[in-house]
Amino acid sequence: MTSLEPLLAEARDFGYLGSQPIGRQIEHAAGFADVCAGALSMASAGDGPAVDRLLDLGAGGGLPGLVLATGPSADRFQLVLIDSSKRRTEWLWHAVEALGLDAAVQIFLERAEEAGRSPLHRYQYAAVVARSFGRPGVTAECAAPLLRVGGILIVSEPPAQLDDAADSADGAASAEGARCLGPAPQLAQRWPTAGLAELGLSPAEEWRARGFRYAVVRSEHACTERYPRRNGVPAKRPLF
Question: Which tens digit of pLDDT belongs to each residue from 19-31?
């Protein structure tokens, strides 16, 4: 069985991941797992099953999906990877098989807008994660229809000067080490409350884990049938 790091180095060589050291990219992905476990434990994501369905939106580089699939909390989730690129999904199949996860991970070659309109995916997930899918308005519109009520969207936030004291003392801590710092001015600019409410989503909260920042929003009620809009429209005319 192949280990994860060489596979991710291969993905970076193909241009599916950024140029940062693989170890740092894995640590960032592990932060997603910490935030996901912490956020789901702090508030139940609806009346779902014991094993939650989790979707990685735009998963072609394997992060954070493959880290979630191989991490200590992997048995808590049924993982689904979606990407619109044939080359990237083919690589994902290769990676999943090399890791011996082909029976545990589902992969779909599909546009996010199409997934959001499909009964197979609509309102089916306790959590959606997005590492570098698109602008906040695009990510929120494509993710909201996938979430069941109470489900969470977790998105990587741009780097900022983090206060180590705040990471260790402020906010509400989860059992997994991720910390919820609540609403933040920077998040309100990138994730306007009115735009999120249009999609049935709560105001964004800032979470921190492993020295990285994440935005978390919750599905407060089912996204209306208006969303997602037609293929390509969310990116051409983002809600915010």
Answer: 999 999 999 999 9
Q: Please give the model's pTM, rounded to 2 decimal places.
A: 0.91
Q: Which residues span the domain enclosing 180?
A: 4-236
Task: Say which residue the tokens 């037609």 belong to.
Answer: 230
Q: What is the C-alpha separation between 90 and 28, in angstroms, rounded?
A: 24
Phi-psi region of 129 (alpha: psi -120 to 50; beta: other; left: phi over 0): beta
Closest CA to 105 of 134, 140, 66, 135: 66
CATH of the domain at 125: 3.40.50.150
pLDDT, tens digit (0-9, with 9 covering 90-100), for 33-75: 999 999 988 765 445 555 689 999 999 999 999 999 999 888 8
* Cα–Cα dist 123/204, whole Å: 20
